[in-house]
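Onboarding guide, step 5: your first structure request.
Type a short instruction followed by the sequence, for example:

Predict the 3D structure of this protein.
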Amino acid sequence: MNFRVKSYAFLSVFFIFLTNPIQIGQYGVERYIPILLGTNVAFFIFIINKNGKADTKLITGCYLFFALIIGCLAIGSSKSNEFFYDFTKIYLCFLLFYLLAEQIRYLSFEKISKLISTSATLAILVLSVELLIRILTTSNVISVLLGNFYELKVNSPFFSDTNAVGLFALSYFIVIYFYKDLTKDKIKYNIMLSLLFIFILTSLSRAAIITAIFLVLYKFYLKCNSKLKLILNFFLFLCFFVSLHILVKFVGDDGSGATKLLIIESVINKYDQINLINLLFGFGITDGSYIYSYQEGEYSHLLITMLLGHVGVIGLFLYFIFFIYIALISKGRTLFASLPFFVVGLSYLHPFLESIFFSHGVIMGVYLKLKNEKFIPVDNYLISKL
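The system replies with structure tokens like these:
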């Protein structure tokens, strides 16, 4: 591989890994300035690097789904002044994913490991400061120290709320957990994993906590042989069937769970009140975030209802087909990120959160790197059958 191609590829993804951890601000413009600047600089370097051979399936899929989803926005959104913001947000997500997926394959495993660990270290630093400020600004610090951690579920100084803190920590947890079997710095990676899990716990986001535990169990499941998987599948189905009524009762009685049921009920009630164009193509990101909420002025929270509000029924299908498409390209490897985020989406997830596309981009890039080099590590079940 040409040294120039490798150098430019490293420099390009370096700006993404450097700016992605700087997650400070609300879901407004200020929060996206660092990662938007970093991704655009990375894109400029990528354009200069003409000698790199693009992956046809990857670039075709990214461009096609991006164009179709933008088309949904253009048709559904009636506010032209908000279209630029919506366009930029979706452009950032797809470009971020593509640049990482396309260029990581040109890097050595050592450089990939350093980029991931450096970016994760910066993220841990941001999360540490965020948690410290949250503790110090809590009304009763002593109560927190004595174990009343729910006191920490207050407005975050850096993020829109503590649920967003959990999602941010989860995105790095996914990347570190996926890559740690490929690095020689296993001790460092395990320490980072432990710290990220602590930040997920202290975010008090039940969706993020349950998903992190789900990811650990999912990785254990992937390690199992086919006979053990068959036994586990039967056991899980039996447990789900037996506990279904308990789960339904818990969701109904729980305040957060009841809210989600009300949101679903709101979608059903509003179905015949929304015109065909908005039903099919949505209302845009700003208005669409609230349109299917059970209470006026509140987020609709659920991934599916937010997608229906943003880009409509057609956009919703395009969104999920995109993740199925990249799962097929990676032979299922990107499911290591997709499944956790979709589990979170049952409770709270913005569909065009850049952290989602960051995690998928890193995993796809690593997969293409391993595939191109025909490198098959025996101890890594996630990529042992390329």
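Each response can be followed by summary notes, for example: Residues 177 and 216 are 9 Å apart (CA to CA).
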